[in-house]
Design brief:
Low-confidence stretches: 116-121
Strand content: under 5%
CATH architecture: Up-down Bundle
CATH superfamily: 23S rRNA-intervening sequence
Number of domains: 1
Order of helices and strands: HHHH
Number of helices: 4
CATH topology: de novo design (two linked rop proteins)
């Protein structure tokens, strides 16, 4: 869990650096602020999930992390597809977003599976 805690924090820092390099056009700044909010909230919400008092609370907090990652991915895609940022400059961060999303979804599914197995016993 500590590895993912650091990885989500590093992700937030990458988002911040990416935002500072965006063009100062209105559309770039609007999309940039959206990705800044969602991308940095991934780490904050993951930290909250780590402090969950129950599996249900953990699952709920991880659901928020999943939503924020999905939203971040959307804004990153829009920055590319609108022509504000070339895909070459976004490939790495898009890849990391996708990897984090897969990890979070797997974690949520594992939590759900454990709950289902307990009910069946």
């Amino acid at each position: 869990m500590n590895d993912l805690r650091q990885r989500t924090k590093d992700f937030a820092l990458r988002i911040i650096k990416m935002y500072t390099k965006l063009p100062k056009t209105a559309e770039a700044q609007v999309m940039g602020k959206q990705v800044l909010r969602s991308g940095t909230s991934v780490a904050a919400n993951y930290r909250e999930a780590c402090r969950a008092r129950s599996k249900a609370e953990f699952k709920a907090k991880m659901g928020i992390v999943e939503q924020e990652l999905d939203e971040t991915e959307l804004w990153l895609e829009l920055l590319v597809e609108s022509g504000v940022v070339p895909i070459e400059k976004m490939n790495d961060i898009l890849s990391e977003t996708d990897e984090l999303l897969r990890i979070v979804v797997a974690s949520i599914n594992t939590t759900k599976k454990g709950r289902t197995e307990r009910k069946a016993k």
